[in-house]
Amino acid sequence: MVSEQEQPVDQPAGPTAEPDRADTDLVIVTGLSGGGRSTVARALENVGYYVVDNLPQTLLIEMAELAYAAGGTARKTAMVLDVRSRAFSTDLTGAVKALRDRGFHPRIVFVDAEDKALIRRFESVRRAHPLQGDGRLSDGIAAERDLLLDAREQADVLIDTTHLNVNQLRSRVEEMFAGEDARRLKVTALSFGFKYGLPPDADFVLDARFLPNPYWVPELKELTGRDEDVSKYVLGQHGARSFVETYARLINATAPGFEREGKRYLTVAVGCTGGKHRSVAIVEELARRLREVRLSATAQHRDLGRE
């Protein structure tokens, strides 16, 4: 028989630790009108983010606190800032600092494009630029660039959409934000053609034009670097594999430092003449090598199909 003193006593439950605000996954999307903010927002929705469009900048902190308090799926929230908002402020730096002072770790995505691409997009939908006023379309774009200069400089992710179609942009955003640790460095290996210009969002630019061009091999000319025959030809050239191995080791060696400094996205651009053969084959192999050493790496091909 159990005595009264031996009776088990229910212990009061200890205090439940509140989740850290740093665990709230906040993404701030901004950039040039016509640059692709809406496409980025839809892509983020596709990978599970709750998206608030055209949010006044003055409500950033309030929205972040609501996401934190709500928990669940709201813990992944993307906020799209737009110069069309009457409450838009140029002090995004101050707003982000205020969020960090409260313990949040927001990521800023900035979409950009060359003026000629923006003009073409506005003309195709027959719509005026929100800052154009009585001036020309180019005047509105210039005013907006000036307004967003500080935001562009502090962006965690800069995406130049000049040569991306809607599907390519959506795919790139989904690969960046889907199902990965938000604090882990994500590497995009990007092929491009020098004749179409350098990618403005590249952190490293590598030149594959030292390799023979499959374009001049009749049976390979119409294929791409994704085809096995072209890949074997490119990677079989003297110096090709050591080129890939050298840069894979460099990226792997520097990745921990980038992560410590808070960089979450790294773009390694590999160029050849047209972005069809050599750079594509090198990028596919480089991304594969990086995944082998457990880095989060994807292959993207900016100019494939443009010829």
Short characterization:
37% of the residues lie in helices and 17% in strands.
Number of strands: 9
H and E string: EHEHEHEHHHEHEEHHEHE
Please state the CA-atom Rg, rounded to the nearest Å: 24 Å
The main β sheet shows up as:
5 strands, parallel
Q: What is the helix fraction of residues, given as a range?
A: 25-40%
The best one-word shape is globular
Overview of the molecule:
With 307 residues, this protein is of the alpha/beta class. The protein is built from ten helices and nine strands. It has a five-stranded parallel sheet with strand order 2-3-1-4-5, sandwiched between helices. A four-stranded parallel sheet has the order 7-8-6-9, sandwiched between helices. Helix 2 links the parallel strand 2 and strand 3. The protein starts with 24 loop residues before the first strand and ends in a 6-residue tail after the last strand.
What topology does this entry show?
Elements: E1 25-31, H1 37-46, E2 50-52, H2 60-70, E3 76-80, H3 92-101, E4 107-112, H4 115-125, H5 137-147, H6 149-153, E5 157-160, H7 166-177, E6 186-193, E7 204-207, H8 228-235, H9 240-260, E8 265-272, H10 278-292, E9 296-301
Parallel strand pairs: 1-3, 1-4, 2-3, 4-5, 6-8, 6-9, 7-8
Keywords:
single chain, alpha/beta, 37% helix, globular
